[in-house]
């Protein structure tokens, strides 16, 4: 009788493990509470050890690592980066520049996009809707560097019709983490 119980238990356990150990990508279509917590923690500290990360989300290390790898594979995690201090790197001047193009044809937009990707002072470039076409975030060592950037790089681009610059006096908040909403799929 005991061996019959063991066989039944063993069979039941085998079925449970088979049906509950399928890759998470097959089972899950939405992020659960643990996935969201992993993303929140990793956005604040991408160098956290897997063991510490697992403890913080109440998982053992192996399932935690599997979840992180799935989040990477599915594109929720794009990369891990070190955020440098602009002041320590002598990039003390931060500015936002509104750029108006002469013409917003598809070819001009593509050309401007490619040009911006190659300019080291441009930290980010966003095509926007409204009274101008692009919003640039740039970093320069000082105002003289900014003046050279504007006069020798940005203003020499034939596609650029007009610019308006806003120099940052104080960076009040510069958050890189994206809030992870409960309804994210």
TrEMBL record:
Annotated keywords: Activator, DNA-binding, Transcription, Transcription regulation
GO biological process, one term: response to amino acid
Entry-linked SMART domains: HTH_ASNC
Record has Transferase as a keyword: no
Cellular component terms per the entry's GO annotation: cytosol
Any one GO MF annotation of this record: sequence-specific DNA binding
Residue stretches making up the HTH asnC-type domain: 31-120
Keyword presence, Transferase: no
PANTHER family per UniProt: LEUCINE-RESPONSIVE REGULATORY PROTEIN
Protein name according to UniProt: Leucine-responsive regulatory protein
Organism: Aequoribacter fuscus
């Amino acid at each position: 009788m005991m061996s019959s119980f063991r066989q039944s238990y063993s069979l039941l356990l085998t079925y449970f493990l088979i049906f509950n150990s399928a890759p998470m990508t097959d089972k899950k279509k939405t992020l659960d509470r643990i996935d969201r917590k992993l993303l929140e923690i990793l956005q604040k500290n991408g160098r956290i050890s897997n063991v510490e990360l697992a403890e913080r989300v109440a998982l053992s290390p192996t399932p935690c690592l599997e979840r992180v790898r799935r989040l990477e594979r599915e594109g929720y995690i794009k990369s891990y980066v070190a955020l440098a201090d602009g002041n320590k790197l002598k990039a003390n001047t931060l500015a936002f520049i509104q750029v108006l193009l002469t013409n917003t044809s598809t070819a001009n937009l593509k050309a401007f996009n490619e040009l911006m990707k190659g300019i080291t002072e441009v930290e980010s470039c966003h095509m926007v809707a409204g009274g101008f076409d692009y919003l640039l975030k740039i970093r320069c060592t000082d105002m003289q560097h900014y003046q050279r950037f504007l006069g020798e790089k940005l203003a020499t681009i034939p596609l650029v019709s007009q610019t308006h610059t806003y120099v940052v006096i104080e960076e009040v908040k510069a958050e890189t983490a994206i809030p992870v909403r409960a309804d994210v799929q």
